[in-house]
């Protein structure tokens, strides 16, 4: 491990490993398979890049996206580690040259797409090369229960079985439920792997949910709070992306757009502009971003409800990869659920997979109505625990917690009276006293609770039902037409042993003119933007130097044809501003600056610092 720590210092500019990294690196160097579950920004790639430098043969990295491959290959070469990629962007001549260079031992790391493993010709050729390690990035893609299932990942095990001697296999992902973790180990045929889970909590991220109100007005407010910072706005459909992008353009906000319906060249140009900081905002479907290595994304806004908690956390986790504060905002409306159900029905898969998708969607809706710490709610979904984060919308919400026990009892009685066979919407209509023919047909207008909530809107009643479900008093079945059922937890309420509380709801629209919070589920904010830690405050003069260093970084990145974060992360620039090094020796003490970068860029940055 002394050699590993020395390599970490030389190539990456850090003196010590982060949590979990040393265990995983040590196991790989000892020849043991590993499974690492580490949140985005925890440094998964270092766990196989350091062994790649020290092991005698080649390291193959299976990566799902061309853009991710390019970013990581650029970063490795900038750090002085010879790396290359093999993908469809190369011409036949370039590919042949790359094969010859690999056989000649000119690279330590080679990135490939999983689809390349489906070629018998490729796997036979690879048998002529000494392969010490096969690293599987975004390993959740191998699981049919994961949210990004890629059948081509199943070829990884076939490859490792054919290679002699069998290389070490290392699998990494940011999010995986216990079911998905077992599936990864099984399908990759990992041999007694060391399993390391560093925890799912992202301490630098703040979460909030905005329910109801005018989404576009809320979107503008969020973008104004993060003016000049990089962020992603996710929408659920191509149409939503186009409309949202056009709306921002009319507001004078320059943004890119990305979805599968665009020409490949247009998508690539938009992505490059975002990665290179030529534009700060990207509006996209979930086709954008898996594995995007851009470190300085400060916010992620979900304009629509994602399909499940895993997808949400993967996408939201693209904020704050550099460890600096990031804000994750979900804008929720009931129509989002309708859209996701449509997508489930239109998607591929048998009835079992669709049932799983509906269950996951219900979990996502419960998150949107959660009354507790939002970080805790996410972590609990993955079978983990953490302390209240203290900075999500719910933790910072100072609204009164209302006793809604009597209203809850009315809801429970209605669900029971409807024989637990109907959905949220019809239950709300009965409570409101609707005259719908279906209600009369089933005789629900004769229930004692019929019309007991006639003074409330149907939307408000639906929100109450969803909140009760989020607290575990009821559950919604996993189907296209979900049914509301009661849980055993209801008994304590009906017997008078337990009271039910709910945060006071306030309309986002009502607060738009001057309130401090938003619609109450993750409402009263305190965002990362407004809450940058005191120790990260550079002061006016420090921020001026930071701006100069960013300008220099951008010019160097354009010259090298790489994204700016490949040169240095924002966190590294901010530490430079605090330390103010004026010699190469002092520059070496800044975290994140290895020897290759000092040799290549040190003088340019030192000149700017001295001049400032």
Automatic annotation (TrEMBL):
Belongs to the helicase family. RecQ subfamily. InterPro entries: DEAD/DEAH_box_helicase_dom, DNA_helicase_ATP-dep_RecQ, DNA_helicase_ATP-dep_RecQ_bac, Helicase_ATP-bd, Helicase_C-like, HRDC-like_sf, HRDC_dom, HRDC_dom_sf. It comes from Cohnella candidum. One of its GO terms (molecular function) is metal ion binding. This is DNA helicase RecQ. Residues 25-194 form the Helicase ATP-binding domain. Gene3D superfamilies: HRDC domain (1.10.150.80), P-loop containing nucleotide triphosphate hydrolases (3.40.50.300), Winged helix-like DNA-binding domain superfamily/Winged helix DNA-binding domain (1.10.10.10). Keywords: ATP-binding, DNA damage, DNA recombination, DNA repair, DNA-binding, Helicase, Hydrolase, Isomerase, Metal-binding, Nucleotide-binding, Zinc. It catalyses: Couples ATP hydrolysis with the unwinding of duplex DNA by translocating in the 3'-5' direction. Its cofactor is Mg(2+); Zn(2+). Its EC number is 5.6.2.4. GO terms for cellular component: bacterial nucleoid; cytoplasm; replisome. One of its GO terms (biological process) is DNA recombination. Residues 505-536 are annotated as: Disordered. Residues 539-612 form the HRDC domain. It is an enzyme of class 5 (isomerase).
């Amino acid at each position: 491990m002394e050699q590993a720590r020395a390599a970490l210092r030389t190539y990456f500019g850090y003196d010590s490993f982060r949590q979990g990294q040393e265990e995983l690196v040590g196991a790989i160097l000892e020849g043991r398979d590993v499974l690492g579950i580490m949140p985005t920004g925890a440094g998964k790639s270092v766990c196989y890049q350091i062994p790649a430098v020290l092991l005698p043969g080649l390291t193959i990295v299976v990566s799902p996206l061309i853009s991710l491959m390019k970013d990581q290959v650029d970063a490795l070469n900038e750090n002085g580690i010879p790396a290359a990629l093999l993908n469809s962007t190369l011409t036949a001549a370039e590919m042949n040259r790359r094969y010859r260079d690999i056989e000649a031992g000119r690279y330590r790391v080679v990135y490939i797409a999983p689809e390349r493993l489906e070629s018998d010709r490729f796997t036979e050729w690879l048998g002529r090369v000494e392969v010490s390690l096969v690293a599987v990035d975004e390993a959740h893609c191998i699981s049919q229960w994961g949210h990004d299932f890629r059948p081509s990942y199943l070829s990884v095990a076939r490859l490792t079985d054919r290679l002699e001697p069998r290389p070490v296999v290392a699998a990494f992902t940011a999010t995986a439920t216990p079911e998905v973790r077992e599936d990864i180990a099984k399908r990759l045929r990992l041999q007694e792997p060391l399993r390391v889970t560093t925890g799912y909590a992202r301490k630098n991220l703040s979460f909030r949910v905005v329910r109801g109100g005018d989404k576009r007005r809320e979107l503008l407010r969020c973008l104004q709070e993060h003016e000049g910072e990089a962020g992603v706005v996710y929408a659920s459909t191509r149409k939503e992306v186009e409309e949202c992008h056009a709306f921002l353009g009319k507001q004078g906000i320059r943004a890119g757009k990305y979805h599968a319906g665009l020409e490949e060249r247009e998508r690539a140009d938009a992505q490059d502009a975002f990665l290179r900081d030529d534009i700060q905002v990207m509006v996209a479907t979930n086709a954008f971003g898996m594995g995007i290595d851009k470190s300085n994304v400060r916010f992620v806004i979900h304009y629509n409800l994602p399909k499940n908690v895993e997808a949400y956390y993967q996408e939201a986790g693209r904020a704050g990869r550099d460890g600096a504060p990031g804000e994750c905002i979900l804008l929720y409306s009931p129509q989002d659920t309708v859209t996701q159900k449509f997508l489930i029905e239109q998607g591929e898969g048998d009835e079992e997979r669709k049932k799983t998708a509906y269950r996951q969607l219900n979990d996502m809706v419960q998150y949107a109505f959660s009354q507790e710490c939002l970080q805790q709610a996410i972590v609990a979904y993955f079978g983990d625990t953490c302390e209240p984060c203290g900075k999500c919308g719910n933790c910072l919400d100072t609204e009164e917690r209302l006793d809604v026990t009597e209203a809850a009892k009315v809801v429970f009685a209605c669900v029971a009276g409807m024989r637990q066979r109907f959905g949220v919407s019809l239950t709300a209509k009965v409570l409101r006293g609707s005259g719908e023919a279906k209600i009369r047909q089933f005789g629900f207008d004769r229930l004692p609770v019929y019309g007991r909530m006639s003074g409330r809107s149907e939307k408000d009643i639906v929100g109450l039902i969803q909140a009760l479900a989020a607290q575990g008093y009821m559950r919604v079945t996993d189907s296209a037409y979900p049914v509301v059922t009661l849980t055993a937890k209801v008994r304590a309420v009906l017997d008078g042993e337990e009271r039910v509380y709910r945060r006071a709801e306030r309309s986002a629209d009502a607060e738009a003119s001057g309130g401090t919070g938003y619609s109450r589920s993750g409402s009263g904010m305190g965002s990362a933007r407004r809450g940058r830690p005191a120790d990260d405050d550079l002061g006016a003069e420090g921020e001026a130097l930071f701006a100069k260093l960013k300008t220099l970084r951008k010019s160097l990145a354009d010259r090298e044809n790489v994204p700016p974060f490949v040169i240095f992360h924002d966190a590294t620039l901010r530490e430079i501003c605090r330390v103010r090094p004026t010699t190469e020796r002092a520059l070496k003490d800044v975290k994140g600056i290895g020897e290759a970068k000092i040799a290549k860029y040190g003088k340019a940055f030192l000149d700017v610092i001295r001049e400032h």
